[in-house]
Amino acid sequence: MHENDVMICRCEEVMLEEIRAWIEKGYSNFDELKRILRVGMGPCQGRGCRDILLRELSRATGKPIGEINPGTIRPPVKPIKLGLCAYGREVDAK
Q: I want to staple 9 with a disulfide (CB 3.0 to 4.6 A). Which of 13, 14, 46, 71 is the partner?
């Protein structure tokens, strides 16, 4: 297996090769990659891929990870029952 054949975002099935190609095209922050590739938009909301993407952006730009914008996180961060949004409280799933 080649290094580029590694799946980075399992939720959206995005490979390292795709990420590197878009970074080379000038996409240099998490939110840009999120918009074009949907990384961080699956059920895990980036909990599985965000750190890997930030490391890859750091490597490509030469900036320390602490200087890389971690992107915008929008609620809900974890999947929730729709009833919580509709009623403002937990609804029994009967």
A: 14
Q: How far apart are CA 5 and CA 15, in angstroms?
A: 6
For the chain, the average pLDDT equals 84
Domain that holds residue 22: 3-87
Q: Report which DSSP code applies to 8.
A: E
In a domain, residue 94? The reply is no
pTM for this one? 0.73
Nearest to 3 by CA among 44, 56, 58: 56
Hunting for tokens 């095209």 — which residue is that? 25
CATH code assigned at 28: 1.10.10.1100
* Residue 54 covered by a domain: yes
Q: Within 10 Å of residue 10's Cβ, how many Cβ atoms?
A: 12
